[in-house]
Design goal:
Layout lengths: L1 E5 L3 H8 L8 E6 L6 H9 L4 E2 L4 H5 L6 H10 L2 H9 L5 E3 L4 E4 L4 H14 L3 E4 L3 E7 L2 E6 L4 E4 L1 E4 L11 H4 L5 E6 L3 E3 L12 E9 L5 E8 L3 E3 L1 H9 L1 H6 L3 E7 L6 H14 L15 H10 L13 H12 L1 E6 L1 E2 L7 E5 L17 E3 L13 H19 L3
Parallel strand pairs: 1-2, 1-10, 2-6, 10-20
Antiparallel strand pairs: 3-5, 4-5, 7-8, 8-9, 11-19, 12-15, 12-18, 13-14, 13-16, 14-15, 16-17
Length: 406
C-alpha cells in the first residue's frame, strides 16, 4: 500500500512516525518547503510547547474556540498524557511549567524534531521536499497527486496535513475533491497601536490583566506584553483566537479596555484611594506604587493623568484621582491592525468538520482520504493546544490508515 502524506509539519510527521514499517507499505511525505517541521522549530520561542498538562477533557475543550465538539472524541482517544508517553518512551524527557505548558527538558525544539525524525527513519518513511501540490484526483481506488514541477505520484491512501492557508483560493484543490471549506481568517495575532505613547514602554509585561473588546462579549484574563507595535502576550492572543471572525469583520479596527489591577468595582477602588490618602498621605505617589505594577507603566499612567513627580497621596486632586482610577481599571486603547508571525501563529477556518469522521479522520466525502492538524476548522489558544490537536488527529489517522490495509 502506498500512503501519501501532504505536509511535513507536526501532524504529517507525527502520522508518519506512527505508521510502522512493513514490507509492501510505502509512506511518502511531500513538503513544499525546503525543510520539514518548521513550525515545531520556532514554537514556544524555539523551545517547542509540546502540549498542555490538562487531561480533564471537558476543561481542555475550553481552550479551543473552534472544533470542540469534534475534539471531544479525538482528545479522549489521544489526550495529552498519551502525547507525553509517546515522546518519553522514545527518550525525550519532558517538564511541566507552572502554567501547565509542557516542554522538553532541554528547552530546545530540536529535541522534538530529532525524536520525530529518528522514528520516521525507523519506519523507513520517504521525504520529498520542494513539492508544491497542484491537485489530487481519484480514479477507481487510486489517487493521482500532481505537483508544480510536473511530476505525479499515485497513492492508495492520502493524508492531508499541510496546515491552514490564509487565503480561500488556496483551498481550491481540496474543494475540487468535493469538500466544503470554512473561510479562513487569522487567529493568535497581536494588536497594533500605531504611534500610541504606550509603545514606548516596549518590553514591559504585566502578569495578570483583563482585556475586553468593545462591542463584543470577548473578555480574557492573562499576562500582557507591551511591544514596539502595540500589545501581545497570552491575554491578547486569547482575545484574537476567540474573536478571530468578529475582529476580521471589524477589519481589525476596534477599541479594547484593559483592567490592569483586576479590581472589578470602581467604588472599591475609590475607597482604596481614600485609605491611601489617610495611610500614605505624605508619601509621593510616583515612588509609592501600591498595585505592584511595573515602574515604567506606573510612571506612564501618572504622566497621562498629569500627576507630577512631587505630588503626595494626601494632595491628589479629585480630577487626577478619577483619571488614574479609570487608567487602572478601564484603560482605553484604539487597535488599528494586527501583527501575525507566519511560522508560528495559526489560522481559523479550513475543511468543515461535518465532512470528516472523528473516529478515523477519514473523509465522509471520499474514501481513502484523511485529514490531520490545522487544515481542519479547528484551532486552539496558545499554550500547546494546537500541537495537541495535531498529535491527536495524526495518531488517529495513522492508526485508521493501517487498519484499512488490505
Amino acid at each position: 500500500m502506498r500512503i501519501a502524506i501532504i505536509g511535513g509539519g507536526a501532524a504529517g510527521c507525527f502520522a508518519a512516525a506512527n505508521i510502522p514499517y512493513q514490507k509492501g507499505r510505502e509512506v511518502v511525505i511531500f513538503e513544499k518547503a525546503s525543510k520539514i517541521l518548521q513550525k515545531v522549530r520556532v514554537s514556544g520561542g524555539g523551545r517547542c510547547n509540546v502540549t498542555h498538562d490538562c487531561n480533564d477533557i471537558e476543561e481542555l475543550l475550553k481552550r479551543y474556540p473552534r472544533g470542540s465538539r469534534f475534539l471531544k472524541k479525538t482528545l479522549y482517544r489521544f489526550p495529552p498524557d498519551k502525547t507525553k508517553d509517546w515522546f518519553e518512551t522514545r527518550g525525550v524527557e519532558l517538564k511541566t511549567e507552572e502554567d501547565g505548558r509542557v516542554f522538553p527538558i532541554t528547552d530546545s525544539s530540536q529535541t522534538i524534531i530529532d525524536c520525530l525524525w529518528q522514528q520516521m527513519q525507523a519506519n523507513k518513511v520517504q521525504l520529498r521536499i520542494g513539492k508544491s501540490l497542484t491537485g489530487i484526483t481519484k480514479t477507481e481506488e487510486v489517487f493521482s497527486i500532481s505537483f508544480s514541477d510536473g511530476t505525479t505520484y499515485e497513492a492508495d491512501k492520502v493524508l492531508i496535513a499541510c496546515g491552514g492557508f490564509p487565503k480561500t483560493q488556496q483551498y481550491n484543490w481540496i474543494k475540487e475533491l468535493g469538500h466544503a471549506v470554512e473561510t479562513p481568517v487569522p487567529s493568535l495575532f497581536t494588536f497594533n497601536m500605531p504611534q500610541h505613547p504606550i509603545t514606548k514602554l516596549m518590553g514591559v509585561s504585566v502578569p495578570s490583566v483583563t482585556v475586553k473588546i468593545q462591542g463584543t462579549k470577548i473578555v480574557q484574563e492573562g499576562a500582557l506584553l507591551i511591544t514596539h507595535w502595540g500589545m501581545s502576550g497570552p491575554v491578547v492572543l486569547k482575545c484574537s483566537a476567540w474573536g478571530a471572525q468578529k475582529l476580521n469583520e471589524l477589519l481589525y479596527d476596534f477599541k479594547v479596555f484593559i483592567n490592569w489591577i483586576q479590581y472589578a468595582d470602581e467604588e472599591d477602588l475609590k475607597q482604596e484611594f481614600m485609605n491611601f490618602r489617610q495611610d500614605r498621605g505624605k508619601q509621593k505617589i510616583a515612588t509609592k506604587n501600591p498595585f505592584g505594577l511595573p515602574k515604567r507603566l506606573w510612571e506612564y499612567m501618572l504622566n497621562q493623568c498629569e500627576i507630577e513627580d512631587g505630588v503626595r497621596w494626601g494632595e491628589l486632586p479629585a480630577k487626577a484621582q478619577n483619571c488614574l482610577i479609570q487608567k487602572l481599571i478601564r484603560d482605553e486603547f484604539d487597535v488599528k491592525g494586527k501583527t501575525t508571525f507566519k511560522e508560528e501563529f495559526v489560522t481559523a477556518g479550513g475543511v468543515k468538520l461535518n465532512e470528516i469522521a472523528p473516529s478515523t479522520m477519514e473523509s465522509r466525502v471520499l474514501s481513502g482520504l484523511y485529514f490531520a492538524g490545522e487544515i481542519m476548522n479547528i484551532d486552539g489558544v496558545t499554550g500547546g493546544f494546537n500541537f495537541q490537536h495535531a498529535w491527536s488527529s495524526a495518531a488517529i489517522a495513522a492508526e485508521s490508515i493501517v487498519a484499512t490495509e488490505k
